[in-house]
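JOB MANIFEST
job_type = single_chain_structure
chain_count = 1
residues = 124
[input]
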Amino acid sequence: MNIDLLYGVGIFIPVRHLAKATDWYKEMLGFEMIHDDSPAANVLKVGDGTVTFCLVTCEDIEQPKFPQNDYEVNVYFNFHTNDVEKAHQLLSSKGANVGEIHDYGKVRGFDLIDLDGNHFGVVT
């Protein structure tokens, strides 16, 4: 496969209240809005924009459950950080719903849940 064929990732996140969710992702995680298509959706970028989140207004949100496994994975994707303690403290101080920090050997991390119950991991 030609490595230049793909250059980024777009992730779609269901939300009930678009404005509140957009504010949460901007304030809690520092995302930047790059496209306003409200009331249906908003697109936010992470860092340099190679990863984008499209927050999509939905009425009935059913959270997927990650299948049981022997790898201790319970979320579909993680945010990476260089300092898990600092990230945990900062998000906690802002009022985010965060779990306790766990040690997974070479990786340490915690769960993060947004306003609509979407689950993410934050790991080193």
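[summary]
The longest strand covers residues 9-15.
The chain has two domains: 11-57, 78-123.
exit_status = 0
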